[in-house]
Specification:
This protein has 15 helices and four strands. It is mainly α. It has two domains: about 1-25 and about 125-145 and about 180-334, Winged helix-like DNA-binding domain superfamily/Winged helix DNA-binding domain (Arc Repressor Mutant, subunit A, Orthogonal Bundle), CATH 1.10.10; about 35-105, Orthogonal Bundle (Arc Repressor Mutant, subunit A), CATH 1.10.10. A hairpin with a 6-residue loop joins β3 and β4.
Length: about 325
């Protein structure tokens, strides 16, 4: 039974992660047409919800490092979307949106014709199931000391910042607000686990993107860098860099493919051992995931079935192969 529970915990992590990645990736493609990145837009949302908020709290809500927040703020100031209001203490920040920034928020809202994958979930999951997912994720977020996040999500829905609700009827609008809650809880959960997991990877000499790449190649042996970039939601150049670093470390094997100039990728035995070690010694020691053990096995299976259906709806139709193939490394390397 313990192995079955561990498999469901591993499944939950990956189902949540890949659902979030697909939602994030497609939304980012949408807003890039407006000269923004999703992190930049998210800072604008945070400032709209909490005018004058400190950079430290922006970091907490956004799950970013302080240097990342400083860089985003600098870019947004250069674009004229935010300004730093003068205070009595000149060492403190009082960041607020400019009129241009307010207008930009209206321009980038998701519409009914948007290609954002979240629209594929509209009215496809019962309210009971969605609310069960919200309840589960909220428990995980609070256990991860992110209990300030629900207020941000409430304001995001209250101010109708993410969607243009003029294009949706009342029933659809309410459902979308629930999906927005799920999306943001998923984001906080995934990024918090990623941060905790990344800190553990020093003991195996990997970065988090490198670990993800190894897992993908483990699940789909013989894929090339272009296919890896698609499955990992990376650019081609990023995927190539990750592959080269893994090859140098002896975790990957490159073989010439049948198609001219193509290179097929395989995980070496050393890489297989690393994946097995990571699941058994790192992933299982992340406190947020262990909080899920408060659920019965049957509840975990049911919650995962909801996440699995959502993944299929947004086009992540190979997620079950990925989970089963990567979890196999435990049995192959006891």
């Amino acid at each position: 039974m313990e192995n079955k529970i561990n498999f469901e915990l591993y499944s939950f992590y990956n189902l949540a992660r890949y659902l979030f990645l697909k939602l994030e990736y497609t939304h980012n493609l949408d807003i890039e047409e407006h000269g923004l990145t999703l992190p930049q837009l998210r800072v604008l949302w945070i400032l709209k919800c909490f005018p004058g908020i400190s950079q430290e709290n922006i970091s907490k809500i956004g799950c970013w490092s302080p240097p990342t927040v400083s860089s985003i703020i600098k870019l947004l100031m250069q674009k004229g979307y935010i300004y730093n209001e003068e205070t009595i203490n000149k060492k403190t920040y009082n960041l607020k949106l400019t009129t241009l920034g307010e207008n930009k928020l209206s321009d980038v809202k998701i519409t009914r014709t948007s290609s954002a994958a979240i629209l594929k979930l509209l009215n496809q999951i019962s309210y009971d199931d969605i609310n069960l997912l919200v309840k589960t994720l909220k428990k995980l977020i609070i256990s991860g000391e992110n209990n300030y996040v629900p207020e941000y999500i409430d304001k995001l829905n209250q101010y109708e910042l993410k969607f243009d609700f003029n294009e949706f009827n009342f029933s659809d609008s309410n459902y979308i607000k629930t999906l927005t809650t799920v999306y943001n809880l998923l984001r906080i959960f995934v990024l918090t686990v990623e941060r905790k997991h990344s800190n553990m990877l020093a003991n195996v000499g990997l970065t988090y993107p490198q670990l993800r790449a190894l897992n993908i190649i483990k699940a789909f042996p013989g894929i090339n860098s272009a296919e890896l970039s698609t499955l990992g939601f990376w650019s081609r150049s990023t995927a190539n860099l990750i592959v080269n670093n893994l090859h140098k470390k002896g975790f990957l094997l490159k073989e010439r493919g049948n198609i001219k100039n193509s290179i097929n990728l395989f995980v070496t035995s050393t890489g297989e051992s690393i994946l097995s070690y990571d699941i058994k010694n790192n992933l299982r020691n992340i406190d947020m995931l262990n909080t899920l053990k408060a659920n019965t096995y049957e509840n975990l299976v049911y919650i995962n079935s909801i996440l699995y259906k959502m993944n299929l709806l947004v086009g992540n139709d190979i997620i079950d192969i990925f989970i089963n193939k990567t979890y196999e490394s435990i049995n192959n390397n006891p």
